[in-house]
Automatic annotation (TrEMBL):
Protein name: Aminopeptidase
Organism: OM182 bacterium MED-G28
Alphabetized UniProt keyword annotations: Aminopeptidase, Hydrolase, Protease
Keyword Hydrolase in annotation: yes
Pfam families: Aminopep
MF terms in GO: aminopeptidase activity
Domain of life: Bacteria
InterPro entries: Aminopept
Length: 355
């Protein structure tokens, strides 16, 4: 009996247990949602191909062989130098045969920037609902729109199962540059180290801090100093993008709080959307017309879309400082983060007040 078969069997048992728990906790309508999620995860689990075996086969193209070999080196570095829980994660490859692995649906009221939350076993409450098919996401989006919500649907190329299953390298990310793949792997593995159910800002800020520190160390170790400048520039652009959207999000909220008619609110909302696009064009000009965010700004810029950028990186400075206090020791840093997760909520929030 092969190790792969045993691993799939063990993870299938986990999936059945998780699905069973979900069925007892949710309504009949939601059972269908969890069923599609289980089918999607099963398809990934049983579509896995061992990366080392693919490399050893000699049947890969030179480009794919080089990419897979780099992933194996990234995994080794993540385990040995970053104390990340690599184990069997990213040792397999899955061709999902579609543009994105999942599509996330976000929703917010017409006159509020506070997103709708959905609660799940293990993950807690988050501001999105994920579907393994674009059609499923669109159908749910239409249902929410009929209820009067602002709705935004975005394709996602990778996700973490939080250690419940061995995560695989997916075809949706294989074309990314090597340093981007490294950052992605560090980020997703970080979610298995520490996760605070229901607190997206905490979880994403922590994973982003690990990603950036891990990428810096990886590039230095592999003597790719020229890529460090590119990664820093991309991080800077991302921060400027987040700051721009966050600033306008506050302006939207101010309009929604005004004692004016709904018609006036809609007019002000439309005007702010136009202003946001105009300021983005000015920002893009300072980036030498880098177009990485053009697709995002081509969408409606409604409240649901704005909520996807809300404050996911707000605590990155906090985690950077915590890493400094750990003298750069990743293991000690991770222990400190998990100690914070174990705190009473009010004590934990008090730590974040200045960030």
């Amino acid at each position: 009996m092969s190790f792969e078969f045993l691993r799939n069997k063990a993870q299938l048992i986990k999936l059945v247990i998780l699905l069973t728990i979900s069925v007892f906790l949710v309504s009949c309508e939601a059972v269908g949602y969890y069923t599609q999620a289980a089918r999607g995860q099963l398809a990934i689990m049983f579509g896995r191909e061992d990366i080392q075996r693919l490399i050893d086969s000699g049947e890969l193209s030179v480009e794919l062989n080089d990419k897979f070999s780099e992933v194996m080196r990234i995994r080794k570095f993540a385990s040995e130098q970053l104390a990340l829980p690599v184990e069997q994660n990213y040792s397999t490859y899955v061709d999902v045969e579609r543009e994105h692995v999942v599509w996330n649906v976000f929703a917010a009221p017409e006159f509020s920037i506070i997103p709708v939350n959905w609660c799940y076993p293990i993950a807690g409450c988050v501001s999105y609902r994920g579907y393994f098919s674009e059609a499923g996401a669109k159908n749910y989006s239409l249902a929410l729109k009929r209820q009067g919500f602002d709705v935004y649907t975005g394709g996602i190329d990778a996700y973490s199962t939080l250690g419940w299953f061995d995560d695989s390298l997916l075809s949706t990310v294989i074309s990314r540059a090597n340093h981007q793949l490294a950052g992605l792997i560090f980020h997703e593995l970080a979610h298995q180290v520490a996760y605070l159910p229901g607190n997206t800002t905490f979880n994403e800020s922590f994973a982003t801090a690990v990603e950036r520190e891990g990428l810096r160390r990886w590039l230095e170790a592999t003597e790719q100093s020229e890529i460090i400048a590119i990664a820093d520039r991309n991080s800077s652009r991302q921060e400027q993008f987040i700051n721009l959207v966050s600033r306008f999000r506050d302006r939207f909220e101010s309009v929604y709080q005004d004692e004016i008619s709904e018609t006036q609110k809609r007019q002000e909302k439309s005007a702010l959307q136009d202003q946001l696009r105009a300021e983005y064009e000015q920002l893009k000009a300072s980036w030498n017309d880098y177009i990485g965010y053009d697709a995002w700004f081509s969408r409606s810029l409604n409240n649901a879309q704005l909520s996807t950028v809300s404050s996911y990186n707000d605590l990155v400075p906090f985690f950077n400082e915590l890493l400094l206090q750990s003298a750069g020791d990743m293991g000690e840093f991770f222990e400190s983060v998990n100690a914070i997760i174990a705190m009473a909520p009010e004590d934990r929030e008090a730590l974040f007040e200045i960030y």
